[in-house]
Amino acid sequence: MMTHSNSYIQVVAGIVQNQAGEILLSSRPVGKAYAGYWEFAGGKVEQNETLFAALQREFNEELNIHIHRATLWQEKFYQYEHANVHLHFFIVGVADWSGDVVAREQQQFSWQNPHNYTISPMLPANAALLQELADFLK
Ligand SMILES: Nc1nc2c([nH]c(=O)n2[C@H]2C[C@H](O)[C@@H](COP(=O)(O)OP(=O)(O)OP(=O)(O)O)O2)c(=O)[nH]1
């Protein structure tokens, strides 16, 4: 069991589903590390913030949607050249969010079929997870 809570930045990311069984991907804005790469919306957890509160805050800030409920699905550790991250991936089912999706931070968003992505590149830390997700959602 890895315990890296001191040296690893805590990050939350949400896998939001729609009625068509698609999942929501976001592109990283210009100016950030890996700008233009696709990821699940989310971001760094702040001091004294729960993972779920961070997820709610990031989705409101970035995509204008409200998360009512989310289920922690997977955790991953990854070492980038810019940071070491402890990623917490949440599944947000079709009934677990509301609002109209609006890209509020100069990013793009795209609803994607988890069995057939038409966008790239994806963040390298997510490669294995995207495979597991296709199996999980089939
Ligand atoms: N949001 C998100 N981040 C991910 C995913 N996969 C992955 O490796 N990451 C990494 C990229 C970044 O190093 C880190 C998230 O940090 P960030 O810089 O985007 O967070 P933030 O929005 O809070 O950034 P900032 O306010 O500090 O600019 O986690 C993912 O699917 N979603």
Automatic annotation (TrEMBL):
SUPFAM superfamilies, sorted: Nudix (SSF55811)
Cofactor list: Mg(2+)
Keyword Hydrolase: yes
Top EC class of this enzyme: hydrolase
Catalytic reaction equation(s): 8-oxo-GTP + H2O = 8-oxo-GMP + diphosphate + H(+); 8-oxo-dGTP + H2O = 8-oxo-dGMP + diphosphate + H(+)
Pfam families documented for this protein: NUDIX
EC number: 3.6.1.55
InterPro entries listed in its UniProt record: MutT-like (IPR047127), NUDIX_hydrolase-like_dom_sf (IPR015797), NUDIX_hydrolase_CS (IPR020084), NUDIX_hydrolase_dom (IPR000086)
PROSITE patterns attached to this UniProt entry: NUDIX, NUDIX_BOX
Domain Nudix hydrolase stretches: 7-135
Keywords: DNA damage, DNA repair, DNA replication, Hydrolase, Magnesium, Metal-binding, Mutator protein
Gene Ontology MF term list: 8-oxo-7,8-dihydrodeoxyguanosine triphosphate pyrophosphatase activity; 8-oxo-7,8-dihydroguanosine triphosphate pyrophosphatase activity; 8-oxo-dGDP phosphatase activity; 8-oxo-GDP phosphatase activity; metal ion binding
One BP annotation, GO: DNA repair
Family, similarity comment: Belongs to the Nudix hydrolase family.
PANTHER family noted in UniProt: 8-OXO-DGTP DIPHOSPHATASE, NUDIX HYDROLASE FAMILY PROTEIN
Protein name: 8-oxo-dGTP diphosphatase
Source species of the chain: Simonsiella muelleri ATCC 29453
